[in-house]
Design a protein that fits this description.
It is built from six helices and four strands. By secondary structure, the protein is mainly α. Helix 4 (92-115) runs antiparallel to helix 5. The two termini are 33 Å apart.
Length: 177
């Protein structure tokens, strides 16, 4: 089946089939940049106060103390690194898979805290830990946000890296030395 040619950029032509591919590449790019921005914001909010990050991990009561300390101290740096990799488009599939794994862990952690009746701040963007008596948890919103970010991670992992990605540039150079 032939697709009709239509005017393209710089006087060239494009087919109707390439338009959806371009839209998908743009959607993946937006998803990649949103994920990267969220990871950098989350990591940057925690990296200057690692004690609060450890306290947030500890509040979930899921990990042994030593592991909670390692995760709490290391997570902000991992988040910032993931964000940078996603934004520049380097190691996109691996970064997206790691994002999906972390988002899944966050969904499980938040759902577990909710199911066990814990009253904690998720610590996703700093602070964290036990909530004050007058504060209410926002588990539903946090789960919805993290589920949405999980879906974005899966989209980015399943598709080529999109536009403006270092991975795409390197692949093109490899094909056309």
């Amino acid at each position: 089946m032939a697709f009709p040619e239509q005017p393209g950029r710089a006087g060239g032509t494009t087919t109707a089939r390439s338009r959806p591919a371009g839209l998908l590449a743009a959607a993946v790019t937006v998803a990649r940049l949103v994920l990267g921005g969220v990871w950098i914001a989350a990591g940057a909010a925690k990296v200057t106060d690692l004690d609060a990050s450890v306290r947030a991990v500890r509040a979930y009561r899921l990990l042994p103390e030593t592991v909670a300390q390692i995760v709490g101290a290391g997570l902000p740096l991992v988040e910032i690194l993931l964000g940078i990799l996603l934004i520049v488009g380097a190691g996109v599939r691996v970064s997206a898979v790691v994002s999906a794994v972390l988002m899944s862990a966050f969904v499980v952690g938040i759902a577990s805290a909710w199911a066990r009746g814990l009253r904690i701040d998720c610590g996703c963007f700093g602070s964290g830990g036990e909530l004050a008596a007058e504060e209410d948890p926002t588990y539903g919103l946090e789960l919805a946000r993290d589920a949405g970010l999980l879906l974005l991670s899966l989209l980015v992992a399943a598709r080529p890296p999109g536009l403006l990605a270092l991975d795409g540039w390197l692949a093109a150079r490899k094909e056309n030395p």
